């Protein structure tokens, strides 16, 4: 007979009837009984350099880095490359926002425009090339998360423009133009 894994909780331990070798053996698992609950009081405090959890000092810098960046709202730490180049993120956000906004207007049929072909220039230049260049610049200045984001969106918008231009003959794969759109 197997031990019921759902009744085990690492914090509480197995039920008192569960044993390591099965129900007929007397050797119990090295967990505490589920009925014995110990309350542990945790303490948190901080100073200028450390955060203390149960009086254990942890340097604040260890909490600052998540996903390759810092959790501070202020400016990023200056690197040699970021001193030579400006911050490329605002240009990338502007390029993405402009094309997304205009595509949203077309999807809402603003001014009677129903096909995104009118955005080919914006898709290729503003959101294609500009986002690819912005992603490369973000990589150079050390902003990895923004680099990956802008490179992926630059590739997406460029490929969307190529689909609308029928590069590779995607329209011929469908029985009608309405099915393609």
TrEMBL record:
Cellular component terms per the entry's GO annotation: plasma membrane
Keyword Membrane: yes
Bias (Polar residues): 1-29
GO molecular function annotation: acetate transmembrane transporter activity
Keyword Transmembrane attributed: yes
Region named Disordered: 1-33
Membrane-topology descriptor: Multi-pass membrane protein
TM segment ranges: 89-106, 118-142, 148-167
Alphabetical list of InterPro entries matching this protein: AceTr (IPR051633), Gpr1/Fun34/SatP-like (IPR000791)
Protein name as catalogued: Unnamed protein product
Species in which this protein is naturally found: Ambrosiozyma monospora (Yeast)
């Amino acid at each position: 007979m197997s031990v019921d894994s759902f009744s085990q909780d690492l914090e509480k331990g197995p039920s008192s009837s569960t044993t390591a070798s099965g129900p007929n053996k007397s050797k119990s698992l090295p967990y505490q009984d589920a009925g014995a609950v110990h309350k542990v009081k945790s303490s948190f405090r901080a100073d200028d350099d450390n955060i203390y959890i149960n009086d254990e000092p942890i340097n604040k810098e260890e909490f600052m880095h998540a996903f390759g960046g810092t959790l501070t709202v202020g400016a990023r730490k200056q690197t040699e490359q970021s001193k030579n180049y400006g911050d490329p993120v605002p240009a990338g956000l502007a390029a993405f926002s402009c094309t997304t906004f205009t595509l949203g207007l077309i999807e809402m049929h603003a001014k009677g425009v129903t096909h995104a072909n009118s955005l080919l220039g914006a898709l290729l230049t503003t959101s294609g090339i500009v986002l690819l260049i912005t992603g490369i610049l973000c990589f150079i200045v050390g902003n990895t998360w923004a680099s990956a984001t802008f490179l992926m969106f630059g590739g997406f918008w460029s490929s969307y423009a190529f689909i609308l231009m029928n590069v590779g003959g995607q329209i011929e794969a469908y029985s009608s133009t309405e099915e393609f759109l």
